C-alpha cells in the first residue's frame, strides 16, 4: 500500500573508479549484489537494486567508474555512467577523502553542470582519515560545485549511511512503489554468478590481468530434486601468458578462484554447487565490438 506521502525514484552512484560506489550500494540495500575489489574499473555495467521502506522506494543505479578510456570496453563503461546521469532523480557523487581535486573530479563536475538533477556529494572512506580533516575536504569540494548536500561517510564501516538514505528521501518526488518488496535487483542469477567468478579472479590476480578478464556462463542447471546446481563457466583473458597465470602452477590459481566463487554462489543459491571453470584466450577482446557484445557489454544497451 502506498500513501500520499510515499516517495520513489531513481538514484545513481557515480564517481571515479575505486571510490566505493558498489560497496556503498551493497551496504545500503543490505545485500551483496554488485562485486567490489581494490582494483579500479571493477564495475562494468549499470546495476540496479531496490531499497524499500515505509517512507518509499529507492532504486539505486550503480555505474562503472568514470575514467579516461583506453579501449572500447572503457568507452562503453564511461558511456554507461554518463548516460545514467540524465535518467535519475538524485545523483550520489562519491569521492575519496582528500583535498586534492584532480582532473578526474573536475571532469565529473563539468558533466554534472549539464544536469539539473540534485547532486549529493558523499565523501567516502572517512574511516581512513582524522575527523578534523573532514571539514577541509568539504570546503574544497564546495568550491567546485553547488551541491544539494555533502555527507561524509564510510561504506565499509556503515558510518552515516542512514543519513544518506534520509537525505535521498528529502530530494525524491512523491510517487508509487515501482517494484514489489521482494525485488532486490534487476540482475539475473546467471549474471551475478558470472560477476562473482570475475570478482574472485580480480581479487586474486595482480596488475594488468584483471582488466582483461570476462566471464561467460556456458551452462547452469539445477539437478532434479533441487539440492545441487551444475555450473560450467569460462574465464576469458587476452593473452596466452595471462592464461598461464590464471591457471597457475598445477592449476592452483584456478582452483583458488573456483573454490572462493563456489562458496559465495552456494550462499546465494542456497544449495550446493558443482562449479567447473575453463580459461580461454580471446586476443584484444576489449577492442572488438563483436566479442564485447558476446560477453555482455552491448553498446545498444547503453
Ligand atoms: N577503508 C575503506 N575502504 C572502502 C570504503 N568503501 C569502499 N572501500 C574499498 O574501496 C575499494 C573499492 O571499492 P568498490 O566498491 O569496488 O569501488 P567502486 O567505486 O565501485 O569501483 P569501480 O567499480 O571500479 O568504479 C574496495 O577495496 C573497498 O573495500 C570505505 O568506506 N572505507
Ligand atoms: Mg563498482
Could you give a short description of this structure?
By secondary structure, this protein is of the alpha/beta class.
Structure, described:
The protein is of the alpha/beta class and 302 residues long. The protein has two domains: 165 residues, 3-Layer(aba) Sandwich (Rossmann fold); 113 residues, K homology (KH) domain (GMP Synthetase, Chain A, domain 3), CATH 3.30.300.20. Helices cover 34% and strands 22% of the residues. The chain contains nine helices and nine strands. The chain has a six-stranded mixed sheet, sandwiched between helices. The site of magnesium ion has 6 residues, from helix 1.
- Nearest-angstrom radius of gyration? 20 Å
How many domains is the backbone divided into? 2
The ligands bound in this entry are: guanosine-5'-triphosphate, magnesium ion
Helix content: 25-40%
- The CATH homologous superfamily of the largest domain corresponds to P-loop containing nucleotide triphosphate hydrolases
Report the mean per-residue pLDDT as an integer: 96
Strand order of the largest sheet: 2-3-1-4-5-6
Strand content: 15-25%
What structural class is derived from the secondary structure elements? alpha/beta
Number of helices: 9
Q: Count the strands?
A: 9
Q: For this structure, what is the CATH class of the largest domain?
A: Alpha Beta
Q: Name the overall outline.
A: globular
Low-confidence stretches: none
CATH architecture of the largest domain: 3-Layer(aba) Sandwich
Order of helices and strands: EHEEHEHEHEHHEEHHEH
Question: How many strands, what sense, and barrel or not for the largest sheet?
Answer: 6 strands, mixed
- Kindly report how far apart the N and C termini lie: 33 Å
CATH topology-level name of the largest domain: Rossmann fold
